[in-house]
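Lab channel / #folding
Pinned by the channel admin:
"Please post every new chain as: sequence first, then the C-alpha cells as a reply. Keep commentary short and put observations after the output so the thread stays searchable."

First post following the new format, from NK:
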Amino acid sequence: MRREVHYGLGKGAVYPAAKAKALLNPLRRLVQPPGRIVGRLGLAPDSRVLEIGPGPGYFSIEAAAQVPEGLLCMFDLQEGMLKLAQERVTRAGLTNCRMARGDAMELPFKGDAFDVAFLVAVLGEIPGPGVCLTEVFRVLRPGGLLSVTEMRGDPDRVKPDNLRELAAGCGFLFEARNGGGWSHTFSFRKPVPAPR
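Reply from TO:
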C-alpha cells in the first residue's frame, strides 16, 4: 500500500529530513534526556529493539549502547533520516544497528521478531496509528514491551486517554505511565498466552 505523505512542521505532517538536525539541539536534553527515555524500556543486553521513527538517531545511540549483544533496528519512512541516524551510530562505534525503510502501517518484519518497540513523538504523525500499533503487536514477542513517548506542545501528540484506548484495542495491556511536565512515556505489554 502506497500512500501520499505530506512533509512539514504542522499537524498531520511528517517531520522532514531536511530539518532533522534541529532534533539534535542540545536544549532537547533538558526535556527529553536520551538516558531517561531509553532507561524506561528496561532493556537487557541481548534485547532485540525496534525504534520506529528514529529521525536522526537522537535516542538510537543510547538504545544501541544498552543492547551490546542484541540488536537495534531503526525503522523510518525517510531515507534521509536513516542516513543521518546511520552516520551518528557509526561515529559512536556501534555495530549492532540495522536500518529498514518503509511505512509503519506495514512493518516488513516477521511476527514475534522483537522484545521491545518504541516510538518518541511519532505515533501522531502516522495516519493510521491503530494500524501501526496492530503491526507492532504482531512483530513483538509475547511479553514484549511497547513504549510510546509523547511531548506536550507537539501538534501531533496522541492524548493519554486516546493512546490507552488505541493500545488496548490492539491487544496491549497498560503497564505504566512515567514522566511529567513536558514528556510522558506510556508502557504497554503484549500478553503472554496462558499455557494449554
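NK: The mean pLDDT is 88.
TO: also worth noting, The two ends are 37 Å apart (CA to CA).
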